[in-house]
Amino acid sequence: MTERETTRAAYRFELPPGAIAQTPADRRDEARLLVLPREAGAPRHRSIADLPAELESGDLLVLNDTRVLPARVLLRRASGGGVPALLLEAPAGERFRAMLVGRGKLRAGDVLTGPEGVELELERAEGEGVWTLRAAGPDVGAVLLAHGRMPLPPYIRREKERDARDALDRERYQTVFAAREGAVAAPTAGLHFTEPLLAELAARGVETATVTLHVGPGTFRPVRVDDLAAHRMHAERYDVPAPTAEAIRRTRAAGGRIVAVGTTVVRTLEAAWERDAPRVGPGETDVFIRPPYAFRAIDALLTNFHLPESTLLMLVAALAGRRRILAAYEEAVREGYRFFSYGDAMLIA
């Protein structure tokens, strides 16, 4: 590893604003797919529909089955001023956490009003805009989620008021296999899958298994330090089911590949890894994967195209090499690939 690879600037690239996808493809499996050999060789240009031909019988696809909360809610002060809120967890009881953004200082004891007039008291500040809120009744959480908007990342532009794309976002900013509610951002590599595509993969002999990592707002947190060793990741909750650990152990024993669908799966499996399989059960990870890194759990990765200087770009650079990844990104820009959450995909295998 060179000293240059340890700096934020080493992961900078030029991206035209028009390359950032603002809406998903007409169909999930219409996205383009750039196939990059992990060790050597030129990229190939395919589509997500070609994914079964790019994998082999005996491979295991590991998916993140987290379900995204409609977590963006507008609250109001007593004066009527708006306070945008991002729920950080499903409000299952009277107390829950949210990130609040408002003009003017918020104070413990302030009462904010939400949809249908529900009331929320600011109980405790936790730093970086995060508050513990106390709800006035047991049904407040359901009301907030019923009126909430999908927590799209800031580079996807939407009107402040609801527009015609809200219904589209509720459907398409969610994977077809989403099962366990708790994320405030989608595991975007999984957005490309359809039930027919999963069936075609199964017919080819490609197994699937799931883990859960509830993606938090830290996934959009920029790297603000020049020395990457000084950057700290936000912790995220994960869970590894016993059948998934067994499927990974079986696949490895038979010589198959573990193919992670998304960087969230990579972080889960690498954080939970013990000897020949991931540790079963819940946990938290704040692992920051960047060059140099010796991967233990995965052999290949399906992922979207990531932000310049982001921790996600650094993760894929650790898998295929910084220069190879940046060269592939430059080619993707030239070829008109769509970037970020609603964009196209890359298979590193």
Explain this structure.
- The mean pLDDT is 93.
- A hairpin with a 5-residue loop joins β5 (72-76) and β6.
- The chain has two domains: 3-68 and 170-348, QueA-like, CATH 3.40.1780; 72-147, Thrombin, subunit H (Beta Barrel), CATH 2.40.10.
- The longest helix is centred in the C-terminal third of the chain and has 13 residues, at 322-334.
- The chain is 21% helix and 26% strand.
- Strands 2-1-19-18-14-3-12-13-17 form a nine-stranded mixed sheet.
- The chain contains eight helices and 19 strands.
- With 349 residues, the protein is α/β, with parallel strands linked by helices.
- α7 crosses α8 (322-334).
Q: How many separate domains make up the residues? A: 2
Strand fraction: 25-35%
What would the principal axes of the Cα set say about the shape? globular
Cα Rg: 21 Å
Major beta-sheet overview:
9 strands, mixed
Quickly give the CATH architecture of the largest domain. 3-Layer(aba) Sandwich
Class inferred from helices and paired strands: alpha/beta
Unreliable spans = none
The helix fraction, in percent, is 10-25%
> Helix segment count?
8
Terminal residue distance: 21 Å
Q: Any idea what the CATH superfamily of the largest domain is called? A: QueA-like
Question: SSE order, as H and E?
Answer: EEHEEEEEEEEHHEHEEHEHEEEEHHE
- Strand arrangement within the widest β-sheet reads 2-1-19-18-14-3-12-13-17
CATH fold field value of the largest domain: QueA-like
